[in-house]
């Protein structure tokens, strides 16, 4: 449990692992890295990655300056060591390092500076979209996560987050508050994949 910039208590249950969730709640960089890792692996695996990585680096948090300056091969080794941090550990290690190098160059290594003081949801979406490894969809999902669970709610944040910003939705990690909602989000994702496959099949005929 930690405090947002509005001094509200934050308790996350995304990784479904108390220590990993506690790190996500108190570390803006850990939350960004978890979001970056959230592709082609189960959500719990992705968002527990920052906690595992911090442990392998000998600390209880992640530091953008340290990661940015880390020897690339050695950093990749932290990802590939068993159990691997991702299905594609080598490429994701490179992406995490690129993200941290960008944060050092643009925000002096302070991940929270990406969203602190933004005047609008559109500006926040633009900042997130500029992060290495963050396409439009990932930026919108993280924006929704910031708004729904971290209390970061600049004007127009729901609109900027697109469908992921809808109240009561079960579309993404932004909506996960425990095992039940995790199951609902996973079911939604499966339905979306099936619909996409059916649409592709129909178009191929």
Structural class: mainly alpha
Low-confidence stretches: 1-7
What is the rounded distance between the termini?
Answer: 52 Å
Tell me what portion of residues adopts beta-strand conformation. Answer: under 5%
- Largest sheet entry: 2 strands, antiparallel
Q: Mean pLDDT, rounded to whole units?
A: 93
- Roughly how many Å is the radius of gyration? 17 Å
Number of helices: 10
* Silhouette: globular
Report the order of strands and helices.
EEHHHHHHHHHH
Order of strands across the main sheet: 1-2
Approximately how much helix is present in the residues?
Answer: 55-70%
Based on DSSP secondary structure assignment, what is the total number of beta strands? 2
Entry keywords:
mainly alpha, two-stranded antiparallel ribbon, 10 helices, 2 strands, 59% helix, 2% strand, disordered N terminus
Would you write up a description of this structure?
It is a single chain. Helix 1 crosses helix 3 (43-56), helix 2 packs across helix 3 (43-56) and helix 5 crosses helix 6 (89-107). Helix content is 59%, strand content 2%. With 205 residues, the chain is mostly helical. It has a two-stranded antiparallel ribbon with strand order 1-2.
Reconstruct the topology from this structure.
Elements (H helix, E strand, L loop, with lengths): L1 E2 L5 E2 L7 H9 L1 H10 L5 H14 L7 H6 L2 H9 L8 H19 L13 H9 L6 H14 L7 H4 L18 H26 L1
Antiparallel strand pairs: 1-2
């Amino acid at each position: 449990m930690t405090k947002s910039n509005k001094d509200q208590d934050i308790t996350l249950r995304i990784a479904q692992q108390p220590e990993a969730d506690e790190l996500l709640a108190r570390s803006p960089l850990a939350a960004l890295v978890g979001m970056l890792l959230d592709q082609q692996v189960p959500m719990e695996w992705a968002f527990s990655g920052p906690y595992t990585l911090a442990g392998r680096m000998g600390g209880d948090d992640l530091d953008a300056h340290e990661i940015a300056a880390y020897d690339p091969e050695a950093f990749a080794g932290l990802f590939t060591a068993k159990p691997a941090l991702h299905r594609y550990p080598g490429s994701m290690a490179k992406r995490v390092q690129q993200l941290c190098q960008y944060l050092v160059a643009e925000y002096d290594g302070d991940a929270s500076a990406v969203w602190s003081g933004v005047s609008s949801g559109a500006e926040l979406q633009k900042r997130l979209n500029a992060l290495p490894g963050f396409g439009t969809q990932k930026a919108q999902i993280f924006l929704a996560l910031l708004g729904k669970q971290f209390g970061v709610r600049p004007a127009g944040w729901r609109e900027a987050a697109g469908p992921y910003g809808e109240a009561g939705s079960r579309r993404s990690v932004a909506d996960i508050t425990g095992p039940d909602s995790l199951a609902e989000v996973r079911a939604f994702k499966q339905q979306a994949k099936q619909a996409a496959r059916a649409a592709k099949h129909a178009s191929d005929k």
